[in-house]
Amino acid sequence: MPGPPPSSPPPFPLSGRLILITGGNGTIAAATAVAVARRGAAVVLGCRRPDAAAAAVREVREAVPAASVRSHPLDLSSPASVAAFARAFAPPAARPAALLNAAATGNLFGVSVRGLWCALTRRPLAGNGTEGGGVAAGCPPPELVVNAVGVAALTAAICGAGAASPPPLVVNLSSRAHRQAHLPSLLRALEGAPPPNGVAGAVRAAFGYPPYADAKLANLLAVRAAAAAIVRGGSRGSGGGGGMVVAVHPGVVASGLFPTPLRAVLRALPPRVRAAVGGRDASVVGEELADLLQRGLTGGLGGSGGGDSLVHGGYYVPGGRLGVVGSMVTPAAVRAYERAMARALVACGFVERGGGASA
């Protein structure tokens, strides 16, 4: 007698799952929102600008007419905004299955006259705040606040002790650029200190790529720190979420981090040429991130668990394969990052002195 027919993957494997995506109007975030909405997930896009939020929601609904998608204000430089977002989407208000930290700001190939001036005059890079406000004097540089400090604050607020049971899967967008980071510069920036002395310090402060690389190292160190903390607490995470944290290098995508002319050139290249220079289509990256989220939430792309589940604290590269992190991601670096980030969270007002989160 023939056996039962092989089971096929469910048509909507993420049905009933709530996925929060920061930087919701960004290229990668929007593409991922479309991909997970097609798989049945409910999506909340955290966006700073209302006009961009409306456009992002419209883009998802045009691609997936039946999508359950909405936006919510989120300015990662503002402690009040981060706290409000967490109140809206942490229990008991909601039970998110996953948090994708995709927000990023900066100009990869820009030149900062202010950064160079701070390096030459030995002044901290923290200023009067970003366009969205919320950055206090004595904080890290505004870009680092958005790209790393605000991300850490939001993750702690959504996934912190008592906030969610089980805590959601957390995916941080990192980058292979973390290999070009400079750990001492990152730690100094998190502590609100001036850039390092000398020509190297001036170059790192003046150009957009080095601070971006440092922020991506911070996103990766955050994952390793969170993974270590969860293991210390007795839960390693599993294929069903349960506090799992991973980092992802999505590849080079022509996003808003590139200057407009270069972005236009990358997008105009034929697909094979673009791939040859390292460029990737956002829609492909979105599908890969949706695969990763599905693997983390269900234990596999078929929804039935097995060897397809994620590795807790892992660093993934295009195609969903485990990648090898740079040599500076060591246990000592993780501990130094934890100390510097704890100070940054207090200095920026995300955490009150004494340990409590700002309301």
Report on the architecture of this protein.
The protein has 359 residues and is an alpha/beta fold. 43% of the residues lie in helices and 11% in strands. The protein has twelve helices and ten strands. The chain has helices spanning 27-38, 50-63, 79-89, 113-121, 142-159, 183-190, 198-206, 209-232, 260-268, 271-276, 282-298, 331-347, and strands at 18-22, 42-47, 68-73, 98-101, 169-173, 245-248, 252-253, 279-280, 315-317, 321-322. The strands form two sheets. The chain has an eight-stranded mixed β-sheet, sandwiched between helices. A two-stranded parallel ribbon has the order 7-8. α4 packs antiparallel against α7 (198-206). The longest helix has 24 residues, at 209-232. It is globular, with a radius of gyration of 20 Å. Mean pLDDT is 78; it is low at 127-135, 235-241 and 303-307.
Brief summary:
The protein has 359 residues and is of the alpha/beta class.
- Runs in which pLDDT lies below 50 for 5 or more consecutive residues are 127-135, 235-241, 303-307
**Largest sheet entry:** 8 strands, mixed
Main sheet strand line-up: 3-2-1-4-5-6-9-10
Distance between the termini: 65 Å
Descriptors for this entry?
single chain; 359 residues; alpha/beta; 43% helix
What are the SSEs and their pairings?
Elements: E1 18-22, H1 27-38, E2 42-47, H2 50-63, E3 68-73, H3 79-89, E4 98-101, H4 113-121, H5 142-159, E5 169-173, H6 183-190, H7 198-206, H8 209-232, E6 245-248, E7 252-253, H9 260-268, H10 271-276, E8 279-280, H11 282-298, E9 315-317, E10 321-322, H12 331-347
Parallel strand pairs: 1-2, 1-4, 2-3, 4-5, 5-6, 6-9, 7-8
Antiparallel strand pairs: 9-10
Helix pairs in contact: 1-2, 1-11, 3-5, 4-7, 5-8, 6-12, 8-12
